[in-house]
Amino acid sequence: MISIKQRAIRLFQARVICKSLIVKKFKTRYSGAIFGPWWAVATPLILAFSIDIIFTHIFKIDVPNFTLFALSGIIPWLFFQNTVMDVTNSFTADAAILQQGIFPREFIPISCVGANFLSFLIGLIFLLPFFLFSKPQVAKVLPFLIVIFILHLVFIIGIGLFFSTLNVFSNDLTHFLSVGLMLWFWMTPVFYSYKMMAFPYRWICLLNPLTYYTTLYRQVLYDGVVPSFDLLYASFWISVGVFAGGYEFFIKRESELLKKL
């Protein structure tokens, strides 16, 4: 079995291939689409419009700028949801490339995460002016997004390595995810803050790792404040733990992947 050090060196040496895979997957995603990458902007905008009508005008939720409040949670959630759905099928969809063995196999799910991250960035960049117009101090804390991006990406890559590998050995995973993600969505503080929940229900949120990432995004984009050190600290260890667990699961099953595909 290849050591962790040898694997890391191999990944670094083949990093250009990973970049090209990310770009290829990103272009393939929007090939043939009239609006192309603009769909990355359209989806959250349509959701924001719906939120504004339903929650602000009909239910009259008493939260200042509730549309932006919800949008700050929806944007990272959509990134997570879309990536998980895509990356879960990445090994089975790219079985032909996988069998060639010309680059590290983990690049397939990682490139899928990277392509979705590009779509996420495009959507966020075009929506950013709305947050800045609502609260100009957001500009001062935007650099913290880089840290949040890294933590979020490491977490999703870990999830992606685990799900994409498990999906090769279990055909039920995709069906489970369609239901599981729906439940996960409502357990994630997208339309509410975990602080709005009374104990013991708040523990449901606190046991959900996405609570920490969503709250960090909201603190920067909606509150315009420096993200909580406690949340960053917790997110760091969640990201490291999930990545390590997902990667270890992939390494243990890597030799069996080609036999199952």
End-to-end C-alpha gap: 21 Å
Mean of residue pLDDT values? 86
Protein structure class: mainly alpha
Biggest β-sheet description: none
Fraction of helical residues: over 70%
Shape: globular
Task: Count the E strands.
Answer: 0
Q: Kindly provide the radius of gyration, computed on alpha-carbon positions and rounded to a whole number of angstroms.
A: 19 Å
Topology order in helix (H) and strand (E) letters:
HHHHHHHHHHHHH
Description:
With 261 residues, this protein is an all-alpha fold. The chain has one domain. It has 13 helices and no strands. Helix 4 runs parallel beside helix 9, helix 4 packs across helix 12 and helix 9 packs antiparallel against helix 12. The protein is globular. The model has no long low-confidence stretch (mean pLDDT 86).
Key features of this structure:
about 260 residues, mainly alpha, 13 helices
Question: Which helices and strands appear, and what pairs or packs with what?
Answer:
Blueprint: H1 4-13, H2 15-30, H3 39-58, H4 66-88, H5 90-93, H6 95-100, H7 107-134, H8 138-141, H9 144-169, H10 173-187, H11 202-206, H12 209-223, H13 229-260
Helix pairs in contact: 2-7, 3-4, 3-7, 4-7, 4-9, 4-10, 4-12, 7-9, 9-12, 9-13, 12-13
Summarize it:
By secondary structure, this protein is mainly alpha-helical. Helix content is 78%, strand content 0%. The chain contains 13 helices and no strands.
